[in-house]
């Protein structure tokens, strides 16, 4: 495998935090494979941007909630084709609503994409990384998985679950020099928070000691650190990137 | 290569042990220094090589080299 170029797989890489992570890892010298579900043009734009900066990237349509599709993707595009150095489980969705009115399908779709999806990707990546005897896995979780948030029972449960998965996987894979960590963004300027009213935004901002929403780049820097050799002795950790709002 | 030779080769590759240590009576954990992740990898390599599905209950019974010889002999096409 040593002849292959070190590759970082970033799920949900067409926009927001995933896009910033893809660009940053490409800047660190990784070939970046990013996945998207529906935003093909945005994904192609991220690839073009990385290539224009002298990096290497490819985009793939992949819905991580579909286990067979994830398995096929790893079989056809990753296994024995690239050196999989890094997996960033970033893809995620929200279906917000109060518990009293939350439908089963809103619960299921968020859990399928935000928890089962990362699990399947991590499992498939592990099979490859265990053989390589090295690897870095970074799961993008959320401050709401740590502190809870009214209206996000499904999302916060999925993200809290992903923190548990991070810690267990870290223990299972440590013997093979594979580190597994999580980055927990606070309130970040993305499409996911772009729909908020000015009032809600202000209320969020007032809770943040650093007095601003974070940028996708703030998160990407933390992911890039955990994906690097500099973080070789860090595993099973949750690195909060939240402006000090929750410790 | 015979089935036993193929099994032996996988064990040598997966566990990084010397071929002459891989005797039928050798236990994976006690004698060949395998851990639980090694055993899982070994099972997956056998499944791939011999195109078989080894269930968890069966896998737990594969403690010695001879257990694998017998299992593969009984189950591979």
Principal-axis shape of chain B equals globular
Q: Can you count the helices of chain A?
A: 9
Number of strands of chain A: 7
Give the rounded overall mean pLDDT of chain B: 93
Helical proportion of chain A, percent range: 40-55%
Mean pLDDT of chain A: 95
> What percentage of residues of chain B falls in helices of 4 or more residues?
55-70%
Please provide the ordered H/E string of secondary-structure elements of chain B. HHHH
Which structural class do the helices and strands of chain A define? alpha/beta
- Structural category of chain B is mainly alpha
What would you note in describing this structure?
The complex is a heterodimer of chains A (247) and B (77). Chain A has 247 residues and is of the alpha/beta class. In chain A, 47% of the residues lie in helices and 17% in strands. Chain A has helices at 16-27, 40-52, 67-78, 104-132, 143-147, 153-173, 191-194, 198-206, 216-226, and strands at residues 6-10, 31-36, 56-61, 83-89, 135-140, 178-185, 238-241. A seven-stranded parallel β-sheet of chain A has the order 3-2-1-4-5-6-7, with helices on both faces. In chain A, helix 1 (16-27) packs across helix 9 (216-226) and helix 4 packs parallel to helix 6. With 77 residues, chain B is mainly α. In chain B, helix 1 (3-15) packs antiparallel against helix 2 (36-50) and helix 1 crosses helix 4. The mean pLDDT of chain B is 93. Chain B has four helices and no strands.
